[in-house]
Design goal:
Elements (H helix, E strand, L loop, with lengths): L1 H17 L3 E5 L8 H15 L2 E5 L2 H18 L19 H10 L8
Length: 113
């Protein structure tokens, strides 16, 4: 049963890669023994479809690869280089008491006449 799910995930990953999305799976590659197939799924597909299928067991390398793809896409779109703290504010999660306090301080809803 597990093998069936792995095949399904790989098929979905191939669909996204062919649609132009770089896909990174955690874990060992089912085709890792073949350098030629690995090259096709990464370099050739990236050249042809702007998508690729990677298998990376190391979480740090997965993050590095994902950030490389994001930076490359930003560059192709001629967007500014990402600078932490410049593009967005950190959101603060509020508990129910804080939400009620905000509601008490807000104007009451006047509705539509």
């Amino acid at each position: 049963m597990r093998r069936q799910f792995e095949n399904t995930y790989n098929a979905i990953g191939c669909y996204f890669a062919a649609s132009g999305v770089p896909v990174i799976f955690g874990g060992e590659s089912p085709v890792g023994a073949s350098e030629e197939v690995t090259k096709i799924m990464t370099k050739v597909w990236m050249d042809r479809f702007m998508g690729a299928l990677h298998f990376e067991p190391d979480p740090e390398k997965m993050l590095e690869l994902a950030l490389k793809y994001i930076d490359g896409a930003r560059e192709r779109l001629k967007l500014k280089k990402y600078e932490p703290g410049k593009f967005g504010a950190e959101r603060v999660l509020m508990d129910m008491a804080a939400r009620r306090e905000l509601e008490r301080a807000a104007k009451p809803h006047i509705g539509i006449y």
